[in-house]
Amino acid sequence: MSPHDVGNIQADGDLCAVICEETDVTDGEILKVIDTSSGTPELIVLTECPVATAEQVQQVAVNGATRQVVVSAGNNLYLFDVDSPGDLPLLMTAHADGIGDTQMAFDGESILYYTDAATPSAVVFDLGANDNALFAANPAAGTLAHRGGAFGYFLNDDSIGNHLRSSIGQLGDATAATATATNATIDDFIDGATTNNGAIGHGQTISILPDGSQWFIAGLESIGSGEYLQTSTGGAFTTVADPSGTDELGCPASDVNCSRQHRRLQIRYRHNDFCRIHPNELTMVVVAHPPSAVSPRMDAAGLGCQRLLATS
User: Fold this and answer.
1) Residue 196 sits in the same domain as residue 80
2) Amino acid 4: pLDDT
3) Residue 299's pLDDT band (boundaries 50, 70, 90)?
4) Is residue 176 part of a domain?
5) 94-108, 109-123, 242-256 — which is least confidently predicted?
6) Which residues partner with 102 through β-bridges?
7) What SS3 state is found at 275?
């Protein structure tokens, strides 16, 4: 099972939303939230589940800031208030092509998802307008991200091997998403000569800082050729230097993910060590798996690096 598979446990901030098999839990309830805000985990049951079996729930998304959970079932989206778990959810109708099997993203004001068409498209549902808007830049593929009014996903029109061209931008008025979707159009080869080592703006996983100010892309799962950590503040992507200084082309990375609460970016690094990056200081800490020889630190001024000895 991949962590990117749809329907897995979803966490954000102090909240973790889970889908329970109704025949395996004593209360028969399908939708639950684990709330850790008090320091002691509390189990909250969303009692007004719109379906009868767990298999009918396609996926969930949670927003820790607004304390809401979005549930996808059939061609509908359901919005739950974690602080009023016994209330009926708000029913929202998805795009006519349905909701696909890519994990959706919820930033508290809108929901970014792919349709269930043979060739999926990226769609944003604006809670305020109660409507769907199709992005101008489509068709879509790969993973997606949506935080702080910023969006990021990949396009199914310009791949280099398994790496897809990214599309990033700020929604502004979510109903105008068709006009504000912005493509990353720079196609420079990372090694300056060939496609063997990937291209600027191409990747397989994407994440955004909580305030929507910075995007990161990387590879997917096991690190392969051309899978480097790249970053953007809204313009062209640039590669991040390798903290160990081993790879002159950049920082080998996959499975990029940013925590909303702690502003930490986690990646798989080099030999699939797990790393946490603190974007404010651009400090990377290697979580050895297997044990790593270095604990790199990134320099905030220019994404340069210096090598520090591991403390564990």
Assistant:
1) no
2) 67
3) very low
4) no
5) 242-256
6) 5
7) strand
Stated pTM of the model: 0.83
Among 40, 63, 93, which residue terminates a domain?
93
DSSP assignment of 197-248 equals T-BTTEESEEEE-TTS--EEEEB-SS--TT-B-EEESSS--EEPPPTTS--T
**Average pLDDT score over residue span 150-154:** 94
Final residue belonging to a domain, choices 93, 118, 152: 93
Residues in the chain: 312
Average pLDDT over residues 220-239: 88
The average pLDDT across 241-263 equals 81
Strands 140-147 and 15-19: unpaired
Residue 47 lies in a domain: yes
| Residue written as token pair 């709330």 | 35
Domain count of the fold of the chain? 2
Q: Which of 273, 268, 269, 275 is nearest to 289 (CA)?
A: 273
Residue 64 lies in a domain: yes
Distance CA 180, CA 82 (A): 31
Q: How far apart are CA 82 and CA 120, in angstroms?
A: 31
pLDDT score for 276? 53
For residue 152, being part of any structural domain is answered with no
Residue 168 CB neighbour total at 10 angstroms = 25
